[in-house]
From TrEMBL:
InterPro entries reported for this sequence: P-loop_NTPase
Protein name: Uncharacterized protein
Gene3D superfamilies, alphabetized: P-loop containing nucleotide triphosphate hydrolases (3.40.50.300)
Domain of life: Eukaryota
């Protein structure tokens, strides 16, 4: 099955695998959880999905906007991913390493 998302990916530096494109399409269409090991697989999928949903994330939550959440088992991975999102988007990024550090996500801007 062909997915149109592959057309929007620069392939000079990185060519996604078919399953990555399929996971990206499924995540865009439905609210799913993608569980992958460490490495570029989860980074590509999560960053592309955040970029795809950026217009919905920018909209205020009270007006039907969305939030994204990246969960990892290591603080270093969370930090690196937060830096990547900040670098590749204009979205506001919160970085939390412990549940006790996290604000009430319904009130977080």
């Amino acid at each position: 099955m062909a997915y149109h998302y592959i057309d929007n990916v620069c392939t000079k530096a990185f060519t996604p695998r078919e399953y990555q494109v399929e996971l990206l399409a499924a995540a865009k269409e439905r609210n799913i959880i993608v569980c992958l090991g460490n490495g570029p697989n989860k980074v590509f999928i999560s960053l592309k999905l955040i970029q795809e949903l950026a217009s919905e994330v920018r909209r205020p939550y009270q007006s039907g906007g969305k939030k994204t959440l990246f969960i990892s088992s290591s603080a270093a991975s969370v930090h690196q991913h937060a830096l990547s999102v900040q670098h590749l988007t204009d979205l506001s990024v919160g970085e939390y390493h412990e549940i006790s550090d996290s604000p009430d996500l319904n009130n977080h801007q």
